[in-house]
């Protein structure tokens, strides 16, 4: 009798990749969180991190991160406003510090490994720009923009 040996069939590569990818999810990485905090405010970076945390099941941690980012933004605004600092490099430095806290403390605390796929930020960027444009238009039509900006906008 002839021994019939058949090699086990290999799984196609795309099926193997799916099995390996089951543990990984798409998350916003550290850099978008830092950059949204820097260019918009730590609230936007906190929202991105909250989305990540909720996506993996840390709902309470997501809420805490969002509350931290809101409190940090308002505390910074009150502190700098009380000191009469409304522009320049100092508010940018405070925004960057908020982003670093979000990405280097909170992000590393809940995502110590790099077992995720980076999520595209285009949708979040569109929402952030829409929010800022809406705030700008509300300030423009209510007359609360600084006079220097109104002069520039009225020049044609």
Automatic annotation (TrEMBL):
Keywords attached to this entry: Membrane, Transmembrane, Transmembrane helix
Keyword presence, Membrane: yes
Q: Where is this region: Disordered?
A: 1-20
Q: Which organism is it from?
A: Mucilaginibacter mali
Which residue spans traverse the membrane? 33-53, 65-83, 119-141
What is the official name of this protein in its record?
Uncharacterized protein
- The domain of life for this entry's organism is Bacteria
């Amino acid at each position: 009798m002839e021994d019939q040996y058949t090699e086990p069939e290999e799984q196609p590569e795309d099926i193997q990749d799916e099995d390996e990818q089951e543990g990984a999810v798409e998350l916003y990485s550290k850099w978008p969180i830092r950059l949204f905090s820097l260019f918009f405010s730590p609230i936007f970076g906190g929202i991105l991190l909250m989305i990540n945390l909720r996506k993996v099941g840390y709902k309470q941690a997501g809420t805490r991160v969002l509350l931290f980012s809101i409190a940090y933004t308002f505390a910074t605004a009150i502190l700098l406003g009380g000191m009469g600092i409304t522009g320049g490099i100092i508010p940018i430095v405070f925004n960057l510090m908020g982003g670093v806290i979000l990405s280097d403390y909170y992000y590393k605390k809940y995502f110590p490994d790099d077992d995720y796929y980076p999520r595209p930020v285009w949708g979040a960027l569109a929402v952030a720009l829409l929010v800022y444009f809406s705030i700008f238009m509300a300030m423009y039509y209510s007359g609360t923009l600084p006079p220097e900006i109104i002069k520039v906008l009225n020049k044609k």
